[in-house]
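Issue 218. Parser rejects a valid record. Input:
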Amino acid sequence: RTRAFNLQQGSMLHWIHVGGRAECTYNDWTGEALVTRAVDPQTFAVRTLQGAIAAVSPVAPQAIGLNFRRMFQCRPVVGYAVEPPASPEPPFPEDDGLYVMDLVSGEARLLLSIAEVVARSPQVRAEPGPAWFNHVYYNPSGRRIIFMCRVNRPPAWRHSLWSVGLDGSDLRLLLDYDQRTSHFTWIDDTRILCSTTVLGRGIQFVRLEDVPGGGAIVPEGEGLLPSDGHACFSPDGQWLACDAFHDGPNGERLAELMLYRPADRRKEVLARVEHPARYVGDIRCDLHPRWHPDGRWVTFDSVHEGTRQIYRADVSDLVG
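Output the parser choked on:
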């Protein structure tokens, strides 16, 4: 059971490995603070870690945490509806942002504040805010992370994409607030796949580089990939799993799960499911495909059977 949950992302389940043993983690609310519970699947022993995990390092016992309570105040669909702060939070706080979580000791420290990022953005410093961070990912070597900074500017939001080193240094603005940026994932240690309007042709998937000063930006999967969606690459980097949604005639959402191979532009549809009309807006559930470490399975979230569950698709015949 958890008191930190939303239909879109659940409680952010992860596997971690500390001291040679595996633990399953989920986010929770103590009544006073957001925490992570780490559960031993053999003994059911539970450890409590400071903060709520958003992403786990692929190479070290470390994670990045986010303030999901603030996120609920800014964008309910990805936040946790826990007790609100006693007083209004500042629009650009100096004591909130990205947290580095030590999975051994269970302690957390602030890595990068929202105020630091907004200070690098003259075009938004004078706006009312608030700003918040979302969607954090380690690169494959675990040396850098990418994240989104959004600023509430009624009637819309402003979006930006950033990367930073694990010591909080070398902060880079990859896509500025003049673009609409949605979902993204690492291709390798320096290349990123992202859905954005940066090419001026509406939102679409592009490849861009995480290098000082920026690099080439080129379209990816035109005519085959959706304009936007949750995407992630297989462990060998050959296949991309992605979801897409369409509106049905009676308010339902039609969801599609697909694989795409950039090398030869091969596309394979794995599943099509229908999400009931009641799962819309802030209680919707996208598929969020994820790869098993051996590359033979793709898991995904869905509410097509009436409750939010995790499903898996066997892709071993396709990926070889």
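Fixed in the parser; the record now loads. The longest strand covers residues 144-153.
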